[in-house]
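ping. complex inputs:
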Amino acid sequence: VSAPRVLVTGASGFIGRECVRALLARGCEVHGVSRSLRADAEPELVWHQADILRQTDIKRLFSECKPTHLVHSAWNIPQQHYTSSENLLWAARSVDLLHEAQCSGVQRIVGIGTCAEYGLDHELCCEDSSEMHPMGMYAQAKYATQVLYNAAAAAGTFSTAWARLFFPYGPFANLKGLIPYTIGQLVRDSPAELSDGEQERDLLFISDIGDAIAAVLFSGLQGPVNVASGTAIKVSGIVRRIGELMGKPDLIRLGIRQSDRLQANRWVASVKRLKHEVPWHPSTSLDDGLRATIAAATANGEEARK
Amino acid sequence: VSAPRVLVTGASGFIGRECVRALLARGCEVHGVSRSLRADAEPELVWHQADILRQTDIKRLFSECKPTHLVHSAWNIPQQHYTSSENLLWAARSVDLLHEAQCSGVQRIVGIGTCAEYGLDHELCCEDSSEMHPMGMYAQAKYATQVLYNAAAAAGTFSTAWARLFFPYGPFANLKGLIPYTIGQLVRDSPAELSDGEQERDLLFISDIGDAIAAVLFSGLQGPVNVASGTAIKVSGIVRRIGELMGKPDLIRLGIRQSDRLQANRWVASVKRLKHEVPWHPSTSLDDGLRATIAAATANGEEARK
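pong. complex structure:
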């Protein structure tokens, strides 16, 4: 029996590269597609250059690669464009990708979603019972894509799951999030000026996310599945721990900013499906994940000072 | 001030042609697009041949036509393919159409939805409060498209409404529906064999639908709006009335078939938004609508016997 041949879109991205690593670790033949190849890509990765936004590129890609499995993590929107209509095009091209995957005989597809599909004000976000209130263009486009992926699988010759990521963190995350901002300030010996930090979040370290997505891909799970820790942690607790781990607790300044009213007070996943139906559970503790993230940021900071 | 220039996709279809008529009656410059032109199209209609499923055709269409308004009624799926993955492609191309419309400066867009987006078991289908359970590929693809249209308008330079049609009837409807079947049987002096007919439906005559869509287009309404009568009528009442109007009440045989469990017992619209926010109300009585439908079927029947 030959190894599964998995195509990963967005293979150079924050999520995609972790999927590539996790799939290689599971012995898969991994093909990655992105607009440009990372210099530090794994040598075992079979790389295809293509722009998923071009339909002709999508067709060529499947005829070159002939994958048995697909992880679709590409959705190349800069964070400041999360409200832009480019998200619409990613939804449309994600459907074209699905269609082409179906035509070329792919058996199993995992799409990447977001906790923002749930919207605000959920005590716990449950795949099967929470009423969906996706807020903003990015979340609505992801949600609509999920509806279409789910519908396609019900009618198709393949199966799909939709991995809703909660709060991924780790080295190389975009520099505007809470954790990169806080670490970045402390690396420069500047204070991290924050809100009161009463918000509760559900964090998952990036290598755990890649491993969870790989596990979902080889499970029989259908439809949406939260990829998260299932543990609520207060923002104040996260940043205080960063301060302690970096030996600069006095630079953590809580209560200085207003908290963003467009953000949920609590965004925590039910992990029942992930735990029992995949089944999968995280292996990286918050301390270990924060230490790895801090180490990478510190190395980058030293690199920049050279 | 020049007349609005309205582009109607699917202009040769059951819904599209009624939109064309209603828009011409309102003094619009109407452009229609379809894969082939109907022989009996209105002479004032400016027709463009294009296949909405081809992105290059979509681009050409907007540069030729430069519409100010768009009614997107094309969704060319034969009824037996309502579960097919072609619906996905219509969703994707509908998004491309929207994107192209936005790029070419269209101010106002109306998309066409369906009551099936609501799913079963609603006492009354309300745009703002009913939880959506779209059932099957067609309804799910329409629903996802609506989510994307709504999201685009929130971020865009144009506004959109989404007309959810309930049960359109009239001449030339597909021959498998309840009303065409019943009339067709009676035209041939054959019995119409039906379920007990306890299901409740919300019917709207096709010319009223065209007029309502035109009214929605020129209203300021945003988001989904039910296009329906707001009146529940039992299937048994509809078919008995057809029997009476055709003078063949004895050919109506209720209770012979099992009712379809995949169909709702009750599918009735709240018309609050349509009545107050557009505002619009129907002008064709059920008797007049049925008479027109019967007359057309009888003429067709005579035509066929010649």
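The longest strand of chain A covers residues 108-114.
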